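Internal ticket - ligand job 834, LTNE7NMQ:
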Amino acid sequence: MSRNAPALPAAAVPAAAASCAAHKFGGSSLANASCFCRVAAILAAQPGPQQLVVVSAMRGTTDALIALADAAVRGDGGWKGAHAALRERHLAATRDLLGDDADATLAWLDHGFTDLANLLAALAVLGTPSREAAEAIQGLGEVWSARMLSDFLTREGHDCACLDARDVLVVGHGELGAVVDWETSSARYADWRARHPPPWLVVTGFVARTREGRATVLGRNGSDYSAAIFAALAGASELTLWGDTDGVLSADPRLVPDAVPLAALSYDEACELAYFGAKVIHPQTLTPVIARGLPVRIRNTFRPEHAGTAIGGPAEGDAPRPPVKGLSVVRDLAVLTLEGAGMIGVPGTAERAFGALHAASVSVVMISQGSSEHSICCVVREADSARAEAALRRAFVAELARGEIASVGVAAGISVLAAVGDGMAGQPGVAARLFGALARCGINIRAIAQGASERNISVAVDAADTARALRAAHAAFWLSPQTVSIGLVGPGKVGAALLAQLEAARARLLREHQLDLRVRAVATRGLLWLGEADGAAAWQDRASEGGDLDAFTRHVQAEHLPHALVVDCSASDAVAARYADWLAAGIHVVTPNKHAGAGPRERWQAIRAASARGARFRYEATVGAGLPVISTLRDLLDTGDELLAAEGIFSGTLAWLFNRYDGSVPFSALVHEAHALGYTEPDPRDDLSGTDVARKLVILAREAGVDLDLADVAVESLVPASLRAASVEEFMHRLSEFDAAIAARHARTRDAGRVLRYVARLDRDGRASVGLDELPADHAFAHLRLTDNIVQFSTRRYRDNPLVVQGPGAGPEVTAAGVFADVLRVAATLGARL
Ligand SMILES: NC(=O)C1=CN([C@@H]2O[C@H](COP(=O)(O)OP(=O)(O)OC[C@H]3O[C@@H](n4cnc5c(N)ncnc54)[C@H](O)[C@@H]3O)[C@@H](O)[C@H]2O)C=CC1
Ligand SMILES: N[C@@H](CC=O)C(=O)O
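stdout (structure tokens):
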């Protein structure tokens, strides 16, 4: 009889079966005496008069028994010590559990361990492995733990019997493992139960008997299978598998720490997830319960208050179903490819290929064939790949010789990632979302498969990409937040303001947008802090000397986080020189630093070229700080407009200085004040020399497609020639020496009824200039406030009346906000719902 369709004779189901609940406790739930007590408490809290409890061995016991048998066969006398330790562990747990009432159980256990010692001694003499002996030994742990639990429950006042499954469960061994003889087993179970009526029953998991009467085991995860079999035999109304997790998680928590427990799964979803690596449940376990439509629940022995995961329970009603419930991976695989024009339109090629693999006992994990029929590709276990390749070469030896099959290839080091969910059927865009998420973190897909059930999309990726792929996909389906690993270079005035803004917004972004902006590294010229998920608060106290940007980069681009982003808030040319490499490596870059945008043309082109390959580069704050200057120009150009001229006041510092300066306070004092307020560049001469304004003009010109370099801009500098080479400190100290000159120029201009303003201009022929203008007092640029920038775009559409962007153009807070907005724009392109 097939293990998939347990047709139970009606006699097998006891009269009171409807109220019987079945449970299974795994080895971790029965690790020691206090675990047994916890299990008893859980059972005592269950409703209903009948409890069927299937148990595994105490944690580690099965492995210990296998090791004992191996050691005995090898003639390694060390088995005696290991046997004594295992015996003492069971006796000690029994003494703890049963106290004064332990004698009978201890004597029974002692007898069992003596029998085991005799068997091991016989194996040691024989020196040859015996399958019979090995299977008899492997299952002893369940026999012992079942008796211990049963005796403890009885002592606790429950009317409880203990069933050694070998007395009723009869199995054969087929290609897929143990096959239950349902007819014999159910008759034996009914007979045994008639003789042992207590409402509570503890059953040994894992063990069974062959038709020939020999003790055997059900294979790995056999206790779950036992639980499903006995739940079916007892006609239980439900089965709970108790372990050490809160149910089936949406992904392996070791790879995706944000994985969440799933409230409900269909049988099909559970099987798909289990096959693709979710260890909580083994698909074959489910066959007896699926056949009976028995609901299964996965729960945590150590958190019984958690509802766990319901499998195969009532349908989830009309509530919208997420397209993907969970993701899993299988590692250590290889892609096998059979390729050649001679396969096109030839019937039977696939049959021969898979027949050859079957004959070589190679299990195929995934299959993919393009409609051109030019190649067949499948994924097999890496350990089988050499055998599989040889089998294909043998099967197609003639075609290979004739060149009809061009190649049989194997690519090892592959993982298969599967996205699973009943809700993806008929829903467009699910595959796109998966593929897009992988593409955005630069992961190449080696092969793709989706069954017609549309319940599973599987992709083969390089093993090195496994964790990142899983995390990216997990976030893409909103099973966990979209996590971006952020590294900040230059935590000065703007950088510090940005850190504070990120910290203040973090919880809200996580809650409302499932976006986890995680600052994990900070670098200055001399310090480096590398952290994890605990945020960058007080990073200085945890930083080390050095500021090594290579270590910084490696840490930001963590293998386990799908997206990496560097924010450069320095004013460093050397840092800007790294952008192209960062972008080429898939690291997004956001910056207010003008050195890239206005730097050497070739470098700028390399940065643009690198960003065209996928990683994003955003630099809105380089012109106008938090103002939407670059994005406005982009919108104009992208919609087909043409820039004719740009003109304005591009420096917050210079705007503030000339708005404030009326001769009553020395100009140098105002420069000091602007510096303290964080308006100036780190070196205020960059502002006063006009270089900062010229850089902004170059950035805008290049954005508009004008091939401009800094050297092409006619610049009027306000920095006295004698202070150009001085240190910043000396410059600031001696600036007052030149107050008289600027006071005189101001007075002349004022007397002429005009005002001084530092203006940038770009015309349609690419002529660019920045300098101090004497403007009429009623000029638009004469009426700005504080640090206001004004940028006027004259375009084909805005020819008569230019489009104007105006507002504060300097200061740490507004600049940081502009940088933050760019970070969010990048996150949105990564799939964040903003
Ligand atoms: N302050 C403002 O209003 C605006 C500033 N910006 C730009 O923002 C950037 C930062 O400006 P502020 O915060 O005012 O300057 P700041 O002098 O306060 O901060 C610069 C930071 O960069 C660090 N740094 C310098 N060279 C470095 C290197 N090679 N490696 C690592 N770190 C390095 C410094 O240690 C410092 O922490 C500049 O590029 C500036 O042009 C852009 C728009 C407005
Ligand atoms: N120092 C600059 C800051 C913004 O770029 C200015 O004053 O505009």
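Auto-summary: The first helix runs from residue 33 to 44. Residues 1-6, 8-18 have pLDDT under 50 and may be disordered.
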